[in-house]
Amino acid sequence: MPSWVKVARNGLVLIALCGVLVFGVSWGLEAVKNAPTGPVVKCEMTDVGDTLEPVEVSFIVVNAGAADGEARRLDTDLRSYKFHNYAQASNSEEKSLDPITLIGNSPDSPEVQLLAQFFKDPVIKGDGRESHIVEIQLGKGWDFKKDYIQNPPTQSISVSGPVCLPKVKLDLSSSSSATP
User: Fold this and answer.
1) What is the DSSP string of the chain?
2) Partner of 99 for a Cys bridge, out of 103, 114, 141, 174, CB 3.0 to 4.6 A?
3) 14 and 100 share a domain?
4) Quick check: is 48 in a domain?
5) What is d(CA 75, CA 124) in angstroms, rounded to the nearest whole number?
6) H helices then E strands: how many in the chain?
7) Do both 110 and 147 map to the same domain?
8) Are residues 54 and 135 in the same domain?
9) Are 144 and 106 in contact (CB under 8 A)?
């Protein structure tokens, strides 16, 4: 076999392997980009008696423009009241001008109303989330001393009947992290 045929054959094999590699990388990146961001958490109707307590409410704090460390600071303080932190505080690419925004299933959901008692004039939104985990967004104007109420007069909220709460295993130790 002439040497130019060997060179051509090796070149074609190399080009084919590079094509397979490029295809694999692009397919992998697309799969990662479109992957779900976390486990889907549904809520289940839970009989909490006639009051909803912080230990039964799950939240996540998102820094949407506040100073570094503020989300972690709020997260730690809310856990001291036995609220359940579903996930570690994180940063959002979307920035908010509102100092504090609470996002839950609906603005009048009991878990949202309970958390709202800890803040001065929060913006409250509902997005129909099935999990009933309350997202707390700290915006550019967030000031811990001005916008947060430590030791609010009431730390529970009256409810009538079962409440839809996230189905997560609660770890009531000092770390209060979730195991979905």
Assistant:
1) --HHHHHHHHHHHHHHHHHHHHHHHHHHHHHHHTS-SS----EEEE--TTEE-GGG-EEEEEESSSPTTHHHHHHHHHHHTT-EE-S--EE-SS--SSSEEEEESSTT-HHHHHHHTTBSS-EEEE---TT-PEEEEE-TT--HHHHB-SS-S-SSEE-SS-EEEE--B---SSS---B-
2) 141
3) no
4) yes
5) 18
6) 4, 10
7) yes
8) yes
9) no
Q: Which amino acid is at 23?
A: F
Model confidence, pTM: 0.70
- 115 pLDDT band, cuts 50/70/90, is very high
Helix (H) or strand (E) holding 102: strand 100-104
Instruction: Report residue 9 CA to chain centroid gap.
Output: 53
Q: How far apart are CA 53 and CA 75, in angstroms?
A: 17
Q: What is the C-alpha to C-alpha distance for residues 7 and 31, in angstroms, rounded to an integer?
A: 36
User: Domain range holding 68?
Assistant: 43-166
pLDDT in tens, 121-134: 999 999 998 889 99
